[in-house]
Amino acid sequence: MFDYLIVGAGFAGCVLAERLAAGAGKRVLLVDRRPHIGGNAYDHYDDAGVLVHKYGPHIFHTNSREVFDYLGRFTAWRPYEHRVLASVDGQLLPIPINLDTVNRLYGLSLTSLELEQFFAERAEHVEAVRTSEDVIVSRVGRDLYTKFFRNYTRKQWGLDPGELDASVTARVPIRLSRDDRYFGDTYQAMPRHGYTRMFERMLAHPGIKVLLNADYRDVAGEVAFREMIYTGPVDEFFDHRFGKLPYRSLRFHHETHDKPVFQPAPVVNYPNEQPYTRITEFKYLTGQDHAKTSVVYEYPCDDGDPYYPVPRPENAELYRRYKALADATPGVHFAGRLGTYRYYNMDQVVAQALTLYARLRE
Ligand code: FAD
Ligand code: UDP
């Protein structure tokens, strides 16, 4: 008899399994339909021996000391500050847009103060900032919006920025300084030996049994358990009763090159002509020393594994109906990016899981 059946061995499922077993002495069965643990943060050594992220670049950053310290119990950290260049008008320019981006793009030599003025002169007046278009045009104007955000967003989401919540493009700051770090968080680091190793250590507890290649629907009838924690897509749990919640997918194209360095930055974004959104070169992220190098291209698409909830009002409305159903389902707790339909980063998923754990303990 298990106390908990946990569906999904990603960040949400692994944190809850670890806490319930090690923190509360519960017996946990953790199932995933994929052949590996780690969910979308899974990493592995490819055929050339380069450590890669199977589902695209995962860079850890958080402002939460609690989350950072909690994960730090299962991994050493390698300090890493992420940097991204965007390919625009034949140049590779820093993104987030900063002082150097503007000076190099337009051949200017503005100071930070003058840049503020430059933005103010171009910013469009928006009565209430609601969409992903509003956020950018109201801050820097239409030209920078068009060059860096409009087409990237159309590609990534299959929607115009005007159809997406402000929160989507607001993830990327606009800076007056020369700071070219992608994230501003207090803690920025990568698990020194990779995410999968960290998850293995979290799950190495006698109270946790892991079952891979297994859909919970095939398992739930065969084993006895008291309660379930579900971290898969919430609409799928209810057989899409109210219709499908939109999730955006990606096709990943992995490549290995017979040279030590492929591109001048960890990630290069392609906001315009290319069918892919970005190329990531993993050795920058992992610090691995290797004669070859591996990269991944991301091609956004509708069909495929659900990776991104799509933040816009009608989807929030549909999710609210599923949420009400979830709240009224006794013995099942919903968590994670897919289970609660939130565009969450890894640290937010960990924080959410720790909060759920605290509630379950009461
Ligand atoms: P998941 O990792 O999706 O795990 C859910 C698991 O449930 C899956 O393994 C799935 O197989 C399993 N499952 C679903 N249904 C069933 C079923 N019926 N039976 C059995 N198993 C089931 N976050 C960051 O902080 N930094 C980044 O740089 C970053 N980059 C990202 C890049 C990409 C391309 C993507 C897609 C996401 C990125 N994220 C990043 C977000 C990060 O991946 C998520 O926040 C985190 O992995 C979510 O964890 P989770 O446990 O909620 O979900
Ligand atoms: N974005 C953009 N141009 C860029 C980078 C980001 O238009 O060069 C927009 C795009 O809509 C993207 C969102 O900002 O989906 C959030 O970017 P982030 O890098 O956080 O996306 P993620 O890593 O979650 O895919």
Automatic annotation (TrEMBL):
Cofactor dependency: FAD
Cellular component annotations (GO), alphabetically ordered: cytosol
Keyword Flavoprotein (UniProt): yes
Entries under InterPro entries matching the protein: UDP-GALP_mutase, UDP-GalPyranose_mutase_C
One MF annotation (Gene Ontology) recorded for this entry: UDP-galactopyranose mutase activity
One Pfam match: NAD_binding_8
Keywords: FAD, Flavoprotein, Isomerase
Coiled coil: none
Domain UDP-galactopyranose mutase C-terminal, first and last residues per copy: 147-343
Keyword hit for Transport: no
Family, per entry: Belongs to the UDP-galactopyranose/dTDP-fucopyranose mutase family.
Name the UniProt record assigns to this protein: UDP-galactopyranose mutase
